[in-house]
Design a protein that fits this description.
CATH architecture of the largest domain: 3-Layer(aba) Sandwich
Strand order of the largest sheet: 4-3-2-1-5-6-7
Strand content: 15-25%
Structural class: alpha/beta
Order of helices and strands: EHEHEHEHEHEHEHEHHHHEEEHHHHHH
Number of helices: 17
Mean pLDDT: 97
CATH superfamily of the largest domain: NAD(P)-binding Rossmann-like Domain
CATH class of the largest domain: Alpha Beta
Distance between the termini: 48 Å
Shape: globular
Low-confidence stretches: none
Bound molecules: magnesium ion
């Protein structure tokens, strides 16, 4: 493939798998960014010879600048440096940053215009979906989802015309705690929450999967990506993670996308679309899997999902506030400062305190995010 690629968040789980695909496809790398992983970004810079790299953490960037002094790679620092990398001339920019930190760099990539945005950073759409989707259109960009469910929906939508779509069936594994009782959930540890039954992912999204906040964020993500109201998105728990999502059309035909749970498939498709190429993901052996099961989500047990569904259609800062509170609550849980069942409590309180703030501009959203973070003491 004769294309150039920038990866925002290249040292994370999605970022490293993207570079693996890029190498196989022969893509040329324009820029790479990360938060503070000096040694891995140094290794990636030496291997892929990008024009520039950036670390959001200024001190880490200083360290990397010394290490890469013998190369022609420019080393940039801070959010500004990450945004400068995002805006550099590239055919595809993959945004796989985690959390609200992805918002400004993703917008910088969009505003540079006329490119494909391969989006793995769901929080950007959750917090600022109206703004990001409008700017994607204004700047002649193309938005291709990387999230496995949204990649599946994107593929299923090719099976009919847009006015013929009745419902989106968004599947959820249910996470590692699907079968636990509400009482048992109070005692779960970060170690247990980090063991996802099917997917190998970063810590933030793994905890979000365990609390089912991830599915709530994905409902909002789907809303913005595909322009459908939340009432038309139905969450279905499917513990085997083989059906990655489905679309139901007006004639009640349901078209689903199936595959082994392996992010390398949606990552590669976001790079090669509309073409399909042999991928590093394994073959699906349905007979060996044998049984696929489906059930309704338990909203009383997984309150994060209920909170997210309730904020989905709000046009104020509620989704951004929910996201900020969740980012903090997940961090506190991972650090042992909060329990697993404190996560929905922290999120719920923040949404009622700050959810009514306006969200008309990026500045509004970032200020609601900052206010929420400052108010949470865990
Ligand atoms: Mg997903």
């Amino acid at each position: 493939m004769d294309k150039t690629l920038t990866v925002l968040g290249s040292t994370g789980s999605i970022g490293t798998q993207t570079l693996e695909a890029a190498e196989k496809l022969g893509l040329q790398i324009t820029a790479l960014t990360a938060n503070r992983n000096v040694s891995l970004l140094e290794a990636q810079a030496r291997k892929f010879a990008p024009k520039a790299v950036a670390l959001a953490d200024e001190r880490a960037a200083g360290e990397l600048r010394v290490k890469l002094a013998d190369t022609p790679v420019r080393v940039l620092a801070g959010t500004e440096g990450v945004c400068e990398c995002a805006a550099m001339d590239a055919d595809i920019v993959e945004s796989s940053l985690v959390g609200i930190a992805g918002l400004l760099p993703t917008l910088a990539a969009v505003r540079a215009g006329r490119r494909r945005i391969a989006l793995a950073n769901k929080e950007t759409l959750v917090c600022a979906g109206h703004i990001v989707t409008r700017e994607i259109q204004e700047h002649g960009c193309e938005l291709i989802p990387v999230d496995s469910e949204h990649s599946a929906i994107f593929q299923c939508l090719a099976g009919g015309r847009r006015p013929e779509v009745k419902r989106i069936l968004l599947t959820a594994s249910g996470g590692p705690f699907r079968a636990l009782s509400r009482e048992e959930l109070y005692a779960v540890t970060p170690q247990r929450a980090l063991k996802h039954p099917n997917w190998d992912m970063g810590a933030k999204v793994t905890i979000d999967s365990a609390s089912m906040m991830n599915k709530g964020l994905e409902v909002i993500e789907a809303m913005h990506l595909f322009g459908v109201p939340p009432e038309q998105i139905h969450v279905v728990v499917h513990p085997q993670s083989i059906v990655h999502s489905a679309v139901e059309f007006t004639d009640n035909a349901v078209i689903a996308q199936l595959g082994v749970p392996d992010m390398r498939l949606p990552i590669q498709l976001a790079l090669t679309y509309p073409e399909r190429c042999p991928s590093l993901a394994g073959e699906l052996d349905l007979a060996r899997i044998g049984t696929l099961t489906f059930e309704e989500p338990d909203l009383a047990k997984f309150r994060c999902l209920a909170i997210a569904l309730a904020t989905a259609s709000r046009r104020d800062a509620a989704p951004a506030v929910m996201n900020a509170a969740n980012e903090l609550a997940v961090r506190a849980f991972l650090d042992g400062r909060a329990g697993f069942m404190d996560i929905p409590d922290i999120v719920d309180r923040a949404v009622s305190d700050f959810g009514n703030l306006p969200a008309r501009t990026v500045e509004d959203i970032l200020s609601a995010d900052a206010l929420t973070r400052a108010s949470i003491k865990v």
